[in-house]
Amino acid sequence: MSELRSGPVVTARCFSLPIAALAAALILTGCSLVNSDSGKLGYEPEVRAVEPAEDEVNAISSQLLDWMGVKGKVTESGAMAGTCDAVDPDFQTHYSVEHPWSVYDLTSGTFEQAMQNLREKLPQNGWEITSDGLTKSQARNPEIVAVNRETHHGVRIEWARSRSGKLPKLITVDVGSRCYKAPKGTKLG
């Protein structure tokens, strides 16, 4: 799978997301960035097996695709556990889950309608849109950042409508979780 991230992932006190997604989410969630060399999370991480946490993020991704209301090709990847740098940069006891994916080569619907559908569906389903505007990149692509305070997940969605060369238009999605503590005896990494 090709990497869809727009930059490094930074751990926040609430969840891990790419830097672009964190900027808007942090303002409204009351979270603060944690230096990966110090500090604690600011919450007690739930003890949770990796597979159910990954399944939950995959289910969120599937729901987002359904809400878009488009048909096309979707990158073939799944959610994966990764480091929770704030408390465990060595990936031994704590983890967060991230799922970057995209939809492209539409056969039904439009990217514009997909973004509008998400603007409507996210708030109707427990998500708070913390940012809805244009990226700060030269392309100035439409972007939606949202958080779900009940499940502690975040999402960054970008419609890459302006791409260099002959690259196809697409919508990239990055769903992320907060940090979890792996059950005793779990082998991470």
Question: Which regions contain 5 or more consecutive residues with pLDDT less than 50?
Answer: 1-39
Instruction: Give the biggest sheet.
Output: 8 strands, antiparallel
Q: Rg, please?
A: 16 Å
Report the β-strand fraction as a percent range. 25-35%
Overview of this structure, please?
There is one protein chain. By secondary structure, this protein is an alpha+beta fold. The chain has one domain (9-181): TBP-like (2-Layer Sandwich), CATH 3.30.2030. It has 3 helices and 10 strands. The chain has helices spanning 19-29, 50-68, 111-124; strands at residues 9-11, 16-18, 71-74, 80-82, 94-108, 128-134, 142-148, 153-160, 170-177, 180-181. The strands form 2 sheets. Strands 3, 4, 5, 6, 7, 8, 9 and 10 form an 8-stranded antiparallel beta sheet that branches. It has a two-stranded antiparallel ribbon with strand order 1-2. It is elongated and about 45 Å long. The two termini are 19 Å apart. This is Lipoprotein.
Please give a handful of descriptors for the protein shown.
single chain; 189 residues; alpha+beta; TBP-like; eight-stranded antiparallel β-sheet; 3 helices; elongated; Lipoprotein
Per-chain topology:
Elements: E1 9-11, E2 16-18, H1 19-29, H2 50-68, E3 71-74, E4 80-82, E5 94-108, H3 111-124, E6 128-134, E7 142-148, E8 153-160, E9 170-177, E10 180-181
Antiparallel strand pairs: 1-2, 3-5, 4-5, 5-9, 5-10, 6-7, 7-8, 8-9
